[in-house]
Amino acid sequence: MKYLAAYLLLTQGGNESPSAADIKTVIEAVGVEADEARISALLSSLEGKGSLDEIIAAGAQKFASVPAGGVASAAGASGAAAGGAAEAAEEKEEEAKEESDDDMGFGLFD
């Protein structure tokens, strides 16, 4: 992930196609040892895929098709009732957490 972040920083800084040496310089600037194999793997995976904006747009389309289950979809389906249920569940969680602190013989602010 740090290699991709370095690549993105370089492109945002105006370097259209960062080289392995550029990425290595950014990584080592923060005191981390750079792994040449990971840098070359990143560059080879991005090679021939178009611009960075196109790659990000294609990824965003893939994420749009992923279902997001859980409380978010329940809230969308049943509106305020689900929101109220989520708040009640949150309150129960907080109460249970407080009780577990008491069971240990100390609390956060004792």
Q: Secondary-structure map with pairings?
A:
Elements: H1 2-12, H2 20-29, H3 36-46, H4 52-64, H5 71-78, H6 80-103
Helix pairs in contact: 1-2, 5-6
Architecture overview:
- The chain has 110 residues and is mainly α.
- The protein has two domains: 2-64, Orthogonal Bundle (Arc Repressor Mutant, subunit A), CATH 1.10.10.1410; 71-103, no CATH class.
- Helix content is 70%, strand content 0%.
- It has helices at residues 2-12, 20-29, 36-46, 52-64, 71-78, 80-103.
- α1 packs across α2 (20-29) and α5 (71-78) runs antiparallel to α6.
- It is extended, with a radius of gyration of 23 Å.
- It starts with a helix and ends in a 7-residue tail after the last helix.
Descriptive terms for the model:
single chain, 110 residues, mainly alpha, Arc Repressor Mutant, subunit A, 70% helix
Q: How would you sum up the major sheet?
A: none
Q: Work out the count of structural domains.
A: 2
Rg over alpha carbons: 23 Å
Helix fraction, binned, reads over 70%
| CATH-defined topology of the largest domain | Arc Repressor Mutant, subunit A
InterPro entries: P1/P2_N_sf, Ribosomal_P1/P2, Ribosomal_P1/P2_euk, Ribosomal_P2
Family: Belongs to the eukaryotic ribosomal protein P1/P2 family.
Region (Disordered): 82-110
Keywords: Phosphoprotein, Ribonucleoprotein, Ribosomal protein
Question: How would you briefly describe this protein structure?
Answer:
It comes from Huiozyma naganishii (strain ATCC MYA-139 / BCRC 22969 / CBS 8797 / KCTC 17520 / NBRC 10181 / NCYC 3082 / Yp74L-3). The protein has six helices and no strands. The chain is mainly alpha-helical.
